[in-house]
């Protein structure tokens, strides 16, 4: 109900364009994808642009921007959200999702699994809400979901330049500490077990 067929839609961090190709199959036609690596072959009318998503601020006037599993990879996420605000029409829709650091401990697999070298930022629902509110995005719908056994937070927002919401920055430090302690305890057991043994790593 929020995204109309005639909307100008931009997917930041589009990768191979799977999401945009799905929209195209549903008769959405004004589609743009931005990423550093874009599809070499494009059989549809999707406009793929090679660009750094964190710095992309060209064009503008988009009615809807989607940012899926991207923000955790970006060094300057404040700048990226500022740029998104500048290229999105007033009243336009932003959909964003990220891994949910508040639930890492519930999805524990191996020590420090979620602290991999690709994810340089870690968000909770409150910290993401704080970031969006600071930049003039009003949340319409928020949801916690699982994606392939991975905890994520999703927010559907509307750009409202007059809107500003500042939260008490209680970012669930206790639950993140719980994940770190669980990882440390598990890793200590592993290191004790392999102490002074020959180990092959591949």
Structural features, described:
- The chain has 202 residues and is α/β, with parallel strands linked by helices.
- It is 25% helix and 25% strand.
- It contains 4 helices and 7 strands; from the N terminus they run βαβββαβαββα.
- It has helices at residues 18-25, 77-87, 125-134, 173-194; strands spanning 9-12, 31-35, 47-50, 62-68, 88-99, 137-146, 151-159.
- It has a 7-stranded mixed sheet with strand order 3-2-1-4-5-7-6, with helices on both faces.
- Strand 4 (62-68), helix 2 and strand 5 (88-99) form a beta-alpha-beta unit.
- The termini are far apart.
- The model has no long low-confidence stretch (mean pLDDT 90).
In a nutshell, what does this entry contain?
The protein is α/β, with parallel strands linked by helices and 202 residues long. The protein has four helices and seven strands; from the N terminus they run βαβββαβαββα. A hairpin with a 4-residue loop joins β6 and β7.
Order of helices and strands: EHEEEHEHEEH
Mean pLDDT, to the nearest integer, reads 90
Strand order of the largest sheet: 3-2-1-4-5-7-6
Tell me the distance between the termini.
48 Å
What would you call the shape?
globular
Low-confidence stretches: none
Number of helical segments with 4 or more residues: 4
Secondary-structure-based class equals: alpha/beta
Helix content range: 25-40%
Question: Tell me about the biggest sheet?
Answer: 7 strands, mixed
**Overall strand count:** 7
**What share of residues are in beta strands?**
25-35%
Radius of gyration: 19 Å
């Amino acid at each position: 109900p929020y995204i109309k067929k005639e909307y100008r839609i931009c997917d930041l961090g589009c990768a191979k364009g799977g999401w945009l190709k799905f929209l195209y199959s549903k008769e959405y036609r004004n589609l743009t994808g931005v990423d550093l690596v874009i599809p070499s072959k494009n059989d549809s009318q999707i406009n793929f642009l090679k660009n750094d998503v964190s710095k992309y601020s060209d064009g503008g006037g988009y009615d809807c921007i989607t940012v899926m599993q991207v923000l955790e990879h970006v060094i300057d996420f404040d700048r990226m959200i500022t740029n998104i605000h500048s290229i999105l029409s007033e009243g336009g829709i932003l959909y964003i999702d990220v891994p949910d650091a508040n639930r890492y401990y519930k999805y524990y697999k191996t020590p420090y699994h979620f602290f991999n070298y690709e994810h340089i930022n870690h968000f909770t629902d409150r910290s993401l809400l704080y970031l969006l509110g600071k930049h003039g995005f009003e949340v319409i719908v928020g949801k916690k979901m699982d994606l392939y056994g991975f905890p994520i937070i999703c927010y559907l927002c509307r750009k409202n330049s007059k809107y500003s919401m500042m939260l008490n920055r209680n970012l669930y430090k206790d639950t993140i500490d719980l994940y770190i302690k669980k990882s440390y305890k598990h890793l200590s057991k592993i290191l004790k077990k392999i102490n002074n043994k020959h180990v092959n790593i591949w």
